[in-house]
Amino acid sequence: MTTRYAALLRGINVGGHKKVPMAELRQLLTDLGHGDVATYLQSGNAVFTSDSDDENATCAALERAIEQRFGFGVDCLVRSGPYLRAVAEACPFPAASLEGKQLHAIYLSKPVDPERLASIDAAAYLPDEFRFGDRVLYLYVPNGLGRSKLAEALGKPSLFKGVVTTSRNWNTVVKLVELTRE
């Protein structure tokens, strides 16, 4: 059975660092045996089909191939279309009435115990808020991510030690759902 996936690459093409041209990423995914490959934006979003039903193995192969091709490591997450749709549908915030820049999904490589974030005084960051989902943290930032002190607090590496995280604004979340429909 063929599965449609999205690969979410973390921290590429930002400020001239870790340059991964999208045409080369598409070719790399094709070389790995994946089909119907497309990319979205320059920030490390690719969609493809695969005969593999193992997200982790697909992700590990992509990370190895990126390091071999480009000479640097890039953390990736690979998620199926149904998972991405479930994340969008489970959003605890009124996504349809918000601008894309006000809502973000921080995808997590594995489930995280909410106790990890117990040190964050959520009330101190209002009106910014976050909620946990299935391997995702929903982040509502009404004034944008760049002005959010909560986003800054959540970005501390110690909070997610041992967990790969990568964030996408809601416009990208919705587009990836659309691109991974089977």
Number of strands: 8
Which CATH first-tier class of the largest domain would you pick?
A: Alpha Beta
**Shape, principal axes of CA atoms:** globular
- What does the radius of gyration come to? 16 Å
Q: What's the domain count?
A: 2
What's the N-to-C terminus distance? 12 Å
Widest beta sheet: strand line-up:
2-3-1-4
Task: List the SSEs and their pairings.
Elements: E1 3-9, H1 22-31, E2 35-40, E3 45-50, H2 55-70, E4 76-80, H3 81-89, E5 103-108, E6 129-133, E7 136-140, H4 149-154, E8 165-169, H5 170-179
Antiparallel strand pairs: 1-3, 1-4, 2-3, 5-7, 5-8, 6-7
Structure description:
- Pfam families: DUF1697.
- The chain is globular and about 50 Å long.
- It folds into two domains: 81 residues, Alpha-Beta Plaits; 82 residues, Alpha-Beta Plaits.
- The protein contains five helices and eight strands, in the order βαββαβαβββαβα.
- 28% of the residues lie in helices and 25% in strands.
- The protein starts with a strand and ends with a helix.
- The longest helix has 16 residues.
- The protein is α+β, with helices and mostly antiparallel strands and 182 residues long.
- It has a four-stranded antiparallel beta sheet with strand order 2-3-1-4, sandwiched between helices. Strands 6-7-5-8 form a four-stranded antiparallel beta sheet.
